[in-house]
């Protein structure tokens, strides 16, 4: 099986062309190929497949084999891969304009649009994605708490007294604003909160430290993958939660361990826009099945 290793801000994925490769058991493949000691190593697997609704379809599997609804860093990689390899009709990899028409990508949260931004050599350097409107109703996130929203709600989780903020960007996020995110024992608290009974479909866990109203430091425990260098949907959720909590502006720079991600919650269309790098590392072959 041919594959491509890619990353967005060091949130790394094995990308497989589903137009050419037939993967019968992607969950098993994801768990096997993501092993950093016995295989390629990654935070998960991305399949880029044909779609009847968009130019391509992205399926994302976590390192434990579970399928996620959405992935912010992954969708930027998918847009770059599909555009540069001619999978998007009318968006040729040989074009050199800095901006082209949007690449439409079918995901678990619907069809999203990505604007590719090319470098001098014509390759896709950065991608801006309309991530859609944030989901705030507890039953739709889901989180087992009453009310219209869950913003700065006092809770006790992982033996810590915390203020919980819940946002879905197609996948569930729990955001906690703290004075010092670096002091949090993420390896201990992350899995406990991810699997707490409050979250019927588990959750992604983020500890966020507000440095200024336009810059927030974020550390993440991702559902099904553990500690990662960056989480695109998580950065979007942090921005939304920060705005609703009165802690930040609508446009922020999310400072992630893997680098900065630009996020804007537009007040005109209520959509969240995410802009960041997409990088191809290498190509290879993996013995599948």
Tell me about this structure.
The chain has four helices and 18 strands. With 289 residues, it is mainly beta. It has an 18-stranded mixed sheet that branches. The chain folds into two domains: 2-131 and 276-285, Roll (Diaminopimelate Epimerase, Chain A, domain 1), CATH 3.10.310; 138-270, Diaminopimelate Epimerase, Chain A, domain 1. Strand 6 (103-107) and strand 7 (110-118) form a beta hairpin.
Tell the overall outline.
globular
Number of helices: 4
Please indicate the count of domains: 2
Structural class comes to mainly beta
Text of the CATH class of the largest domain: Alpha Beta
> Can you identify the CATH superfamily of the largest domain?
Diaminopimelate Epimerase, Chain A, domain 1
Stretches where pLDDT is under 50 for at least 5 consecutive residues are 92-99
Please give the alpha-carbon distance between the first and last residues: 8 Å
Order of helices and strands: EEHEEEHEEEEEEHEEEHEEEE
As for the CATH topology of the largest domain, it is Diaminopimelate Epimerase, Chain A, domain 1
Q: Strand share of the residues?
A: 35-45%
> Count the strands?
18
Gyration radius (Cα, Å) is: 18 Å
The main sheet comes to:
18 strands, mixed
Query: What value does the average pLDDT take?
Result: 94
CATH architecture of the largest domain: Roll
Helix content: 10-25%
């Amino acid at each position: 099986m041919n594959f491509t290793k890619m990353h967005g801000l060091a949130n790394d994925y094995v990308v497989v062309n589903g137009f050419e490769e037939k993967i019968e058991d992607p969950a098993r493949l994801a768990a096997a190929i993501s092993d950093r000691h016995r295989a390629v190593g990654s935070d998960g697997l991305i399949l880029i497949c044909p779609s009847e609704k968009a130019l391509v379809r992205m399926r994302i599997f976590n390192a434990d084999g579970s399928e996620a609804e959405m992935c912010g860093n992954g969708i930027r990689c998918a847009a770059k891969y599909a555009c540069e390899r001619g999978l998007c009709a009318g968006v040729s990899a040989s074009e050199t304009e800095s901006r082209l028409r949007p690449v439409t990508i079918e995901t678990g949260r619907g069809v999203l649009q990505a604007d590719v931004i090319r470098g001098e050599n014509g390759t896709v350097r950065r991608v801006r994605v309309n991530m859609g409107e944030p989901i705030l109703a507890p039953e739709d996130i889901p989180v087992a708490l009453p009310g219209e929203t869950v913003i700065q709600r006092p809770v006790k989780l992982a033996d810590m007294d915390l203020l919980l903020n819940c946002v879905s960007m197609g996948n569930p996020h729990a955001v906690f604003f703290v004075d010092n995110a670096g002091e949090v024992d993420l390896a201990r608290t992350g899995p406990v909160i991810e699997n707490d009974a409050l979250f019927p479909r588990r959750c992604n866990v983020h500890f966020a430290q507000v440095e200024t109203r336009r810059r927030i430091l974020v550390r993440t425990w991702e559902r099904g993958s553990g500690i990662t260098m960056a989480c695109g949907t998580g950065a979007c959720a942090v921005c939304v939660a920060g705005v609703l909590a009165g802690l930040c502006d609508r446009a922020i720079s999310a400072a992630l361990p893997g680098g900065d991600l630009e996020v804007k919650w537009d007040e005109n269309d209520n959509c969240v826009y995410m802009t960041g790098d997409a990088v191809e590392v290498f190509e290879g072959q993996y013995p599948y099945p």
